[in-house]
Amino acid sequence: MALQLRIVNQDPPVSTAAVPAWLGYGFRPFFLGAALLAPVLVGLWLAEFIWGKALPHPLPPLLWHGHEMVYGFAASVVAGFLLTAVPNWTGVPTPRGLPLGGLFLLWLLPRIGLLFVPRAALPVLAAIDLAFYPALMVALARPLVLARKTQHLIFLPILGALSLCNTLFWAEVLGYLPGAASLSTQAAIGLLLLLVGIIGGRVLPFFASRALPEATILPVAWVERLATPSLALAVLASVVPIRPEAAAAVFAFAGSVHLVRLYGWLDRRAWGIPLLWVLYVGYAFLGIGFLLKAAAALAWVAQGAALHAHTVGCLGIMILGMMARVALGHSGRELKPARLTVAAFGLLVAGAVARSLLPLAAPGAYREWIILAGVLWFLAFALYATVYAPILVSPRADGKPG
């Protein structure tokens, strides 16, 4: 349990040299970037969907939407979280100040470029975008190796696999490998879900025990042993062609394991603690998404239901909840979210239901469900940005560095 405590509540000593507040810790620029990008991406996507007129970005709309939600929005939060967690696991700082700003720029420039640059500039944009994951891995590897924290090295090959997926995406865009973009994006989503399983398994029981010290949160040993392997198999089954019945069995197994895992962490009093219940709901969508994926493999439901249960439901809700908690804890503030933040949680949960589940119940209103889900996503992250942008660019409330 001491390991989990270091994830979120203890900051290692850092240099007191002058560093702009927004570059004082890894979560600050990357959470801010994600908070601003999330409503922009979905707002532009909604505009294209409603009015049927493609915006002037240089990629086909579906490829752009998938790439930016995965390698733009989600990647920013992964970077921010790991750049904040690794110093607490190791006691060795990750980049801050100008080096952190340079890493953030590698992430930011492709986001801007994919909205405005002509297609002829895509090779340059691709080179910048492809440099981000290797640079992030170097930033994380140094403290992990110096501190000999081998139990955390698992994140490096996952980041390397995400980098490979991004390379395959760009290989299709630049005309070298037709058909690679969609499959690689699907694989990248699976890798992000694997991260949710690994990180969630570390922090959710700890968060619950801290918020409810009298509760008994006892992970089930056999479930914990199956949690990561079941997810890894499900990721493979998503991209390797196998019989539909076999794929459905793998997906159903993974979904069941993680719903049983979540059940072992539950305490009904958690529903009165927003920073806890939002993560429970997000993790529930991990299991629900795989059950829907099993049904989709057998052609019982549309693939989009499973996809958006995982992306809007699991990834979106977990990201919003983690950004809210980490930003409060690491800015020296009390772990009590503002009312607008709690409203954002509710809006995003409603959006996830509207995008993944309601189309199954009322498919005749499919277009309306998509629009509703997009509006709710936009509002949820706009509220987060409204509340947290001042926190992310301001010094810690307790006067400590970071």
Label the CATH architecture. Answer: Up-down Bundle
Please tell me how large the radius of gyration is: 20 Å
- Encode the helix/strand succession as letters: HHHHHHHHHHHHHH
What is the helix fraction of residues, given as a range? over 70%
Largest sheet: none
Distance between the termini: 24 Å
Strand tally is 0
Instruction: Report the top-level CATH class.
Output: Mainly Alpha
Report the average pLDDT across residues. Answer: 93
Shape: globular
Instruction: Give the tally of structural domains.
Output: 1
Provide the structure class. Answer: mainly alpha
Which topology does CATH recognise? Answer: Cytochrome C Oxidase, Chain A
- State which percent range the strand residues make up: under 5%
Number of helices: 14
Specify the CATH homologous superfamily: Cytochrome c oxidase-like, subunit I domain
Uncertain stretches: 1-9
Gist of the model:
With 402 residues, the chain is mainly α. Helix content is 74%, strand content 0%.
Keywords:
402 residues, 14 helices, 74% helix, globular, mainly alpha, disordered N terminus, Cytochrome C Oxidase, Chain A
